[in-house]
Design a protein that fits this description.
Helix content: 25-40%
Structural class: alpha/beta
Number of strands: 6
Radius of gyration: 16 Å
Oligomer: single chain
Order of helices and strands: EHEEHHEHHEHE
Shape: globular
Strand order of the largest sheet: 3-2-4-5-1-6
Length: 182
């Protein structure tokens, strides 16, 4: 029913960043907006880059696509560095491997022509990735909806500091920021 469709006007034509602590609903909000776009018949405009690792339900998670999703959905095999590594050095190595896997997604030929780009859990790229490369992918897109961890639940590793610094840059570069409370 049309009355049940979320109003996407606050997202359309903007670059929106959803940030928050672990388990605050960043991915669920992203799913709700994606569902609204699908109900509006716009899912073919959408490219989803799902950077979330499979964590067995502990934290985070991949986007659940609506049944009527007709867009492009891409994932990379990601290992959660801070949950998997025994040392900071091992976490850094895992983060670097994740960034390389994500770089391959950025080369998808559907991205430049899409109307809507969704990136779930961009922090997995920011831990060891190139901010300018991410910006080059996102900037030309008319509507971008990206979510990112922004909190203090993890150890103060070097990759955590880089992730925070680059998320701060995203906050400065984006049109709209949604901060989800704990």
């Amino acid at each position: 029913m049309p009355g049940d469709v979320m109003n996407t006007d606050v997202y359309d034509g903007r670059h929106t960043l959803i940030i928050g602590e672990v388990n605050t609903g960043k991915t669920r909000l992203t799913e709700a907006v994606l569902t609204a776009w699908c109900r509006q018949g716009r899912s073919e405009e959408v490219v989803v880059l799902d950077l979330a690792p499979v964590t067995g339900g502990r934290i985070g998670g991949r986007i659940q696509r609506p049944a009527d999703f007709q867009g492009i959905y891409r994932v990379a095999e990601i290992v959660p560095p801070r949950l998997s590594a025994r040392t900071e050095e091992e976490a850094q190595t895992l983060a670097a491997a994740n960034a390389q896997a994500i770089e391959k997604l950025f080369q998808d030929p559907h991205i430049p022509g899409c109307g809507i780009l969704i990136i779930n859990d961009v922090t997995l790229y920011l831990q060891a990735g190139d901010y300018d490369r991410l910006r080059a992918v996102v900037q030309p897109i008319e509507t971008a909806l990206i979510n990112a961890y922004y909190g203090s639940s993890f150890p103060d590793y070097r990759l955590s500091r880089q992730e925070r610094r680059l998320t701060d840059r995203l906050i400065q570069d984006f049109d709209s920021i949604i901060r989800l409370p704990r």
